[in-house]
Amino acid sequence: MDVTLWDLVDIIIVGYLLFQIYKLLKGSLGFNIFLGLVFVYILWWLVSALGMPLLSSILGQFVSVGMIALLILFQPEVRRFLLFLGQGYLQGQLIERLLGKKSGAQEDAQIELIIREITRATEEMAQEKTGALILINTGASLDGYYSSGVMLGAKISSQLLLSIFNKYSPLHDGATIISGQEVIAASCVLPVSDRPGIPQSLGLRHRAAIGITEETPVLAFIVSEETGHISYARQGNIQRNISAEDMHKLLRRVLR
Ligand SMILES: Nc1ncnc2c1ncn2[C@@H]1O[C@H](COP(=O)(O)OP(=O)(O)OP(=O)(O)O)[C@@H](O)[C@H]1O
């Protein structure tokens, strides 16, 4: 049998897609369903090869409606995957990476200033146990979420962020979204993740951070009102209790 270059490309693409499906379903109930479907498929293939017509035709019924069943069972995951593809992930990150980010010395200094302001405010809120949820948009289209909050279009500063999340401020509830060099909106309502693997101790603020990062390529920082811990969520995963230094490094990696 001849193995061509296209066979290799084919295998690499299928491998990549399977890995993405694994990443998407990891830790969810959907992963067990997916394993169940793979098991049914292997069983059907086995009984067909062994020549067991009755069992093979019963299992064959499942397999023949497989694609439709997959779309119904995994509707939220398929939606999330398509959103991820469409929402600036490719435009914003991949293309930028391919073309190389343009970053002059002046721009670098500006970004460093922004990072310092965000980190300073977050650190102060953590010390004072002021709850906060800050999204850093790295190229997604978040128009639908802006409209759920209050548009600001203001220059980023630690004072502004501290004012927004001050518990007496009318803007402190919900998420504040930062894009480029501006605080675009505050008090935004985000989708709350319903993934079963999330620890019970995490409430709505943390679940909203996980939820939005499942659907869009944004970075979400959370300050817990209860513990004063800083956490971040990215691609649906949460990293808890990070230091201000970790936060600074992460922002540098993402924004530069
Ligand atoms: N869908 C949502 N989108 C954005 N923000 C939300 C959403 N739901 C709740 N919040 C924010 O989370 C706050 C409630 O947080 P809650 O105490 O339930 O979460 P938590 O994860 O336990 O955080 P903490 O550790 O700060 O208590 C609300 O006051 C609101 O500001």
Which series of helices and strands comes N to C? HHHHHHEHEHEEHEEEH
- In the CATH hierarchy, the third-tier topology of the largest domain is known as YojJ-like (1
Q: CATH superfamily of the largest domain, called what?
A: DNA integrity scanning protein, DisA, N-terminal domain
Number of strands: 7
Number of separate domains: 2
Uncertain stretches? none
Q: How large is the radius of gyration?
A: 23 Å
CATH architecture verdict of the largest domain: 3-Layer(aba) Sandwich
Q: Sheet bearing the most strands, described? A: 7 strands, mixed
The top level CATH class name of the largest domain: Alpha Beta
**Treating each run of at least 4 consecutive H or I residues as one helix, how many helices?**
10
Order of the strands making up the biggest sheet: 2-4-3-1-5-6-7
Strand content: 15-25%
Mass-distribution shape: elongated
User: What hetero molecules are bound to the protein chains?
Assistant: adenosine-5'-triphosphate
Helix content: 55-70%
Q: Which structural class do you get from the secondary structure elements?
A: alpha+beta
Terminal residue distance: 48 Å
Average pLDDT rating: 86
EC number: 2.7.7.85
Subunit structure: Probably a homodimer.
GO molecular function: adenylate cyclase activity; ATP binding; diadenylate cyclase activity
Function: Catalyzes the condensation of 2 ATP molecules into cyclic di-AMP (c-di-AMP), a second messenger used to regulate differing processes in different bacteria.
